Amino acid sequence: MTLQETSDSEAPAVSEDMVAGRAAMTDDVPKAYRVKSRTREAIETVLPPVLLGGLFLAFWYYLSLVVIDEGRRFLLKPPHQVVDVGFLDSDNFTEMLSGLWSSTKVALIGLAIAISIGFFLAIIMSQAKVLERAVFPFMVTLQAIPILAIVPLIGFWWGYGQTSRVVVCIIISLFPIIVNTLFGLLSADRAMHDLFTLHHANRLTRLRKLMFPAALPAVFAGLRISAGLSVIGAIVGDFFFGRGEVGIGQLLRRYANNLNGEELLAAVILSSALGIVVFWTFGWLQNAAIGKWHEAVQK
User: Fold this and answer.
1) Contact at 8 Å (CB) between 257 and 202?
2) Residue-wise over 98-134: b if at least 16 C-beta within 10 A, else e?
3) Which of 85, 86, 234, 288 would give a disulfide with 103, using CB separation of 3.0 to 4.6 Å?
């Protein structure tokens, strides 16, 4: 038998082994994924924050019961007292929920107006460089002004009620929307712009089918930042504009003035929970809108 005949006779056996090996590998890959899948993913998602939260509670107890003297313990009550007085007392909890709902309405109204203004300004700035150069410095100036410096002006122009709180939310949450939306609109691929130019697409078509889809990841990043800032703006507005419906910020100021440590900490926890819920809501909207085709690379 010649060398050529030997090679030809062994070739099918090698090919069959390779096919069998590949089939085995193909069968093993789903099993490996299934072994990890849901249980391990749930543990990796839940366990780190639970451990960190447990350490935080232990440190809280240490500060309240060991570091702080009993006569000054009103500065930081232990967690179980905060739960008893702030959350399990129906009168206190109902009052906090009412104030939280008032602040939530202010934050959502201010955020909606800020989104409308921010999208409009970002779109017009993306269409002409001269408009960007004209508008952007004033947006930076508005962002740089401390809100405390213009509180008297806001109260003088819009009164000391709910309208002024909405204005504070708009001022605080507007800039991230403009910056991120403008960045996203200008980040579309240059080759795709050339393709749209080749097909004689007008500005509206280019904006709707190229620039805005490319901007969605940056847009949602700005929305998530501004959502948290709008909650801060609503609470800050409550501190300075106390007329009208009582918000969570007014309750915080009242509890602080009366040295009600349990209610104060409970109100702070509820305020933080509101910011987290709003942030997660826009994160869920982001996954629903672009999660299928835009995934962040994680290592």
Assistant:
1) no
2) ebbebbbbbbbbbbebbbeebbebbbebbeeeeebee
3) 234
Q: Residue 239 belongs to what domain range?
A: 78-290
What value does the mean pLDDT of the chain take?
A: 80
Dihedral sign of CA atoms 25, 26, 28, 30 in order: positive
Residue 52 forms part of a structural domain: yes
Residue the block writes with tokens 């934050």: 107
Q: How far apart are CA 176 and CA 193, in angstroms?
A: 26
pLDDT at 1: 47
Amino acid identity, position 71 = G
**DSSP letter (8 states) at residue 75:** G
Q: Where are the alpha helices (DSSP H) in 63-89?
A: 79-82
Q: How many other C-beta atoms are found inside a 10 Å radius of the C-beta of residue 46?
A: 10
Question: Same domain for 41 and 93?
Answer: no
pLDDT digits (tens, 9 = 90+) for 84-139: 888 888 888 999 999 899 999 999 999 999 999 999 999 998 888 888 888 888 88
Whose structure tokens read 């504070």?
168
Nearest alpha-carbon partner for 263 in 59, 83, 104: 83
How many alpha carbons lie under 13 Å from residue 134 in its C-beta half-sphere? 9
pTM above 0.90, yes or no: no
Q: What are φ and ψ of residue 184, in 5° steps?
A: -65, -40
Q: What is the mean pLDDT of residues 152-177?
A: 89
Q: Is 172 within 8 Å of 227 (Cβ atoms)?
A: no
Instruction: Tell me 299's DSSP state.
Output: -
